[in-house]
Design brief:
There is one protein chain. Strands 1-2-4-3-5-16-6-15 form an 8-stranded mixed β-sheet. A 4-stranded antiparallel β-sheet has the order 10-12-8-13, covered by helices on one side. A two-stranded antiparallel ribbon has the order 7-14. Helix content is 33%, strand content 27%. The chain has 2 domains: 254 residues, Zn peptidases (Aminopeptidase, 3-Layer(aba) Sandwich); 113 residues, Alpha-Beta Plaits, CATH 3.30.70. Helix 3 links the parallel strand 3 and strand 4. It is an alpha/beta fold. The structure holds zinc ion (2 copies). The site of one zinc ion has 4 residues, from loops.
């Protein structure tokens, strides 16, 4: 059973049928069918999630490998012959690659079960959007009996043949906020009678940029970005209300809490300067992905000679794999998948390309990662 050629087929088949979070029906069916063909007994959980255990010939520990399965709401523009057949949905983050790698690992392990313990592969819906599929998978039992959990993300910024991994924070707390400003609208020619919500919102946006530059320790990494300001109706009316939305990325709970306080304080006091009001609504997203040091050390050892190990700065993106690492020891890492001779497009771009040479390497490093745990 040639897992290393089959994984390309899996990836292309799945690339054609991207589905949004918790709607991954066809994907689910494909995964179940393929796992059954390997002689495995997949179970359904959390709606479209799938999980299968591959038991070795001897008793031992259990290690789980997670793949996420959802696509993004984009029209694909790669021109690939196996492009999305679902209008408005695309595998633009590489989750098709994650599924192919996990299937390849399952295929390789089920062909030769000469190992102690059990490897569980589980396929999780809805990574792309909070609240994410991970909490539902955990509630449905994907970590029951599991001693360690591993996951990877294909990474277009890094060349094929590299793995990016580090102990501690690898990815960020990814939160969302909305600030609602209430002033007093009026005639554009008579501002003295108004409390201009456009002006106040603008001042708030500017002042928010002093949090990272002037309120945080220079060694605390954080991002505060305002994504939208919505206000006003036409040129000669002073706006009564404004709404700002944005995102906050942090690597620790302490910095996160400081920023929540600072945003609220700046919004309220800036509005108060103009005798207006501003109210902050802060929504906590995925927590930070915090890798366990012992797992990282073991994996780095296991990956020696197969890939070049790099120690990247933490990525300020969010990833719901974080929830698994709150429950069990384990680690998450980046698998370089940069195209060899095509332009590199960022994840979530309609032009996103994944170098398929990364897929067998993904199986190889996960295989070594699970074996190093089970045979330790
Ligand atoms: Zn993504
Ligand atoms: Zn992703």
């Amino acid at each position: 059973m040639p897992w290393d050629t089959d994984i390309i087929t899996y990836r292309r088949d799945l690339h054609k049928i991207p589905e949004l979070g918790f709607q991954e029906r066809q994907t689910h069916d494909y995964l179940v069918r393929t796992l059954k063909q390997m002689g495995l007994d997949p179970v359904e959980l959390a709606g479209t999630g799938v999980m299968a255990d591959i038991a070795g010939t001897r008793p031992g520990k259990t290690i789980a490998v997670r793949a996420d399965i959802d696509g993004l709401p984009l029209d694909e523009e790669t021109g690939l012959e196996f492009s999305s057949e679902h209008p408005g949905v695309m595998h633009a983050c590489g989750h098709d690659g994650h599924m192919a790698i996990a299937l390849g690992l399952a295929q390789r392990l089920s062909a030769s079960r000469d190992f102690p313990g059990t490897v569980r592969v589980f396929f999780q819906p809805a990574e792309e959007k909070p609240p994410g599929g991970a909490p539902a998978m955990i509630a449905a039992g994907c970590l029951d009996g599991v001693d360690e959990v591993l996951g990877l993300h294909v990474w277009a910024n890094d060349p094929v043949g590299t793995v990016g991994i580090r102990p501690g924070a690898l990815m960020a707390n990814a939160d969302e906020f909305t600030i609602r400003v209430t002033g007093k609208g009026g005639h554009g020619s008579e501002p003295a009678d108004t409390k201009d919500a456009v002006l106040i919102a603008s001042q708030i946006v500017v002042n928010l940029q002093t949090i990272v530059s002037r309120r945080l320790n220079a060694f605390d990494a954080a991002v505060v970005s305002c994504g939208t300001i919505r206000s006003g109706v036409t040129f000669n009316i002073i706006a009564e209300t404004a709404e700002i939305t944005g995102t906050v990325r942090t690597l620790s709970a302490a910095v996160q809490q400081k920023i929540v306080r600072e945003i609220g304080h700046i919004a309220e006091t800036t509005a108060a300067m103009y005798d207006a009001r501003a109210v902050l609504e802060y929504v906590y997203g995925y927590p930070a992905v915090i890798n366990h040091a012992a797992s990282v050390a073991r994996l780095e050892q296991a990956f020696q000679g197969v890939v070049e190990i790099v120690h990247p700065d933490p990525a300020m993106g969010g990833e719901d794999f974080a929830y698994y690492l709150q429950e069990r020891p384990g680690a998450f890492f980046f698998l370089g998948c940069q195209p060899d001779d095509a332009e590199t497009f960022p994840h979530h771009s309609p032009h996103f390309l994944l170098n398929e040479k990364a897929l067998p390497l993904g199986v190889e490093v996960l295989y070594r990662g699970v074996m190093s745990f089970l045979t330790a």
